[in-house]
Each structure stands twice: as structure tokens, then as C-alpha cells.
Amino acid sequence: MREHKLNDIYNQLVQAIGEEQVLLKQPLMHYTFTKTGGQADLHVFPAAFSDVQKAIRIAVENEVPLTTLGNGSNLIIRDGGIRGIVINLTKLTQMELQDNRLVVQCGAAIIAASRFALESRLTGLEFACGIPGTVGGAVYMNAGAYGGEVADVLESVLVAAPDGELHRLGAKDLDLSYRHSNVAQKGYIVLEAVFQLKQGDAAEIKRQMDEFTCLRESKQPLEYPSCGSVFKRPPGYFAGKLIQDSGLQGFRIGGVEVSTKHAGFMVNVGGGTATDYIRLIQHVQDVVEQNFGVRLETEVKILGEDKD
User: Fold this and answer.
1) pLDDT interval class at 218 (50, 70, 90)
2) Phi-psi region of 283 (alpha: psi -120 to 50; beta: other; left: phi over 0)
3) Which range marks the domain in which residue 176 is found?
């Protein structure tokens, strides 16, 4: 984007949303779990749903791309960064209880939502106690773990459409399946989720969450920056087992390594770049396909453009 146009859009965003909520040419490596990624032309931090609508409309009027980020947990941003406007939703974190329904804004951590449910003696979100993403991201990819997934408890969502209008949709409208929704296809931004939960025994809910947390801490390489589970589970197989049986644990490209603790993870062991991640992903896919005839599909989302 040309400098004068970039500055003009920056001024429009500042006037509409506030100077403290708009950053110009901000490195995105500070906002991803991998600690990699180039800069955003414009980085916006909405504090209200109306701010999101304003940012969408400014992007439409100026014909520039719009990209949505949560907390950057299951994400790789290429080293060339992201052009246009990036909306970061992590300031939208309110949660409230309506009978047995948990109403959560998109930027809240799904872990925090599971803990709020525990405090309210509600069962159904135990599976999410170790998922590091936001509620919006969890809906976007129908996140799941330990036999549960968002689709099991999601009742409805509030979304912003590509024109900035808000719509309330039922879970059935999102075409939820394994690690999939139609959110990206429709151009929606998830702003709020309503989870339909049930009354439960607080001690039993906590026991299950403690068990899941223990499993996660014992099996996942939480001591390093990573993008979480890299690949979807292929039908009839486990991605981590295929990678392990291919002898790829510990294999490294640049500063990124296939975890020696869990082969389904790739960790930044020091100085890794997004390009290292992407090259390692492709190498693992190629080797596993050669060995087992299975092409692993990425669960992690890859955004942005390569560095010149």
C-alpha cells in the first residue's frame, strides 16, 4: 500500500476508533504463540463491537484487505506480514451467565470460559480447559480436545458480516464439522458465542479439568513457543504417530523443530521464523506421504505474505 493511502486510512481509523487503539506498521511476532511474523500495515484493537463495525466499513470504503486475529495461538503469520487492516479482538473479553447459558465475547480465552463455567457449576466445557485459543478462534475452527468440541455445546453466535452488519446465527448455520466451520467462507467475524451448558457437580467438573490439564502438561511441549497441534487427524490415523514413525522427531529447519515430546507439535527452539515453520511443515507432509501414502492436512492457519 502506498504511504499516503496508508496514512490516510490510519487517520480514518484513529478518528473513528481512537488513537490508542490503532497501531501503524506493528510487528506481529509480538502477537503470535510462535513468536514469528512480519508487520501489519495497520493493527486495530477494538474495545466494542461497534469499533469492529467501523473498521470493517473503513476497509470496505478504502478497498483494502481485512484480517482478523485472536491471540495468535493456532496461527503462523508469514515473515512478510499482512497488508491492509488487521483487527485484533483480544480486548473483547466479557463473559456473563444467563441461566445455564454462558455468553462470552470473542476475545476471551476459551480456557477462561471453561473456568468461569466451573465457578458457575456448569458442565460441558471441561474439554476446553487446556485449549490456548480465544472463543472466537475456537468457534472458527470448531476446536476440540479429549473427546469434546465446540459444536457439542454451542447454541448461537453473534457475527459481523462483510458489510459490517451484525447477525445472530444458530450453531446449525455454521456448518460445524471436525476442525471446520463456514466462518471464513462467509467472511464472518465471530463477536460473541453462547454456550448451552448443564448444571453439574463442581468437584467432578474440577476433577475432570485437572485430569485434562495434567495430560496436556505431561504430553505437550509447553516450554517452547509453538502454534499448537499442526495437523488435523487423518481418518484412521494419528498425525503425531505417523510423524514419529517417520523418524522426524527432533528434525529441525532453522530454529524450528519437530518436538521430541510430541511429534504433532513444532516448536521454536530459538530464532525460528515463519518461513522455517512453513518449510518444516512441507517437509513433514512430504516424508509422511512417501512413507505411508497419507498427506497430512494442516490444522494451523497460515496468513500473510512471504518476505521479499
Assistant:
1) confident
2) alpha
3) 95-204
* Structure confidence at residue 157 (pLDDT): 98
- Tell whether 210 is covered by a domain: no
Q: Are residues 68 and 108 in the same domain?
A: no
Query: Looking at the DSSP assignment, which residues form a beta bridge with residue 22?
Result: 44
Q: Report yes or no on 308 lying in a domain.
A: no
Domain total in the chain: 3
- Are residues 13 and 70 located together in one domain of the fold? yes
- The verdict on 42 and 107 lying in the same domain is no
Q: What is the pLDDT, as a whole number, of residue 222?
A: 85
* CATH code, 160: 3.30.465.10
Report the DSSP beta bridge partners of residue 97: 102
Helices (H), 90-201: 110-119, 135-140, 183-186
The string over 100-139, giving b where at least 16 C-beta atoms fall within 10 Å of a residue's C-beta and e elsewhere, is bbbbbbbbbbbbbbbbbbbebbbbbbbbbbbbbbbbbbbb
Mean pLDDT, rounded, for 164-177: 97
The catalytic residues are 179, 229, 299
Average pLDDT over residues 67-76: 93
